[in-house]
Amino acid sequence: MNKHQFMNQLRQALSPLDGPAIAEILADFEEHFAAGFSRGKSEESIAAELGDPLEIGRQYAEAASAIPPAPVPPAAAPAAPRINEGALLGVILLNLFIGIPLWLGLFAALAGFWAGAGSIGAAAVVLFVLAVFQAGVISLILVLFAIALSALTILSVIFLVYLTKWMIKGVVAWFRWNRSLVTGGAAA
Question: What does the domain layout of the chain look like in residue ranges?
Answer without folding.
Answer: 3-66, 85-183
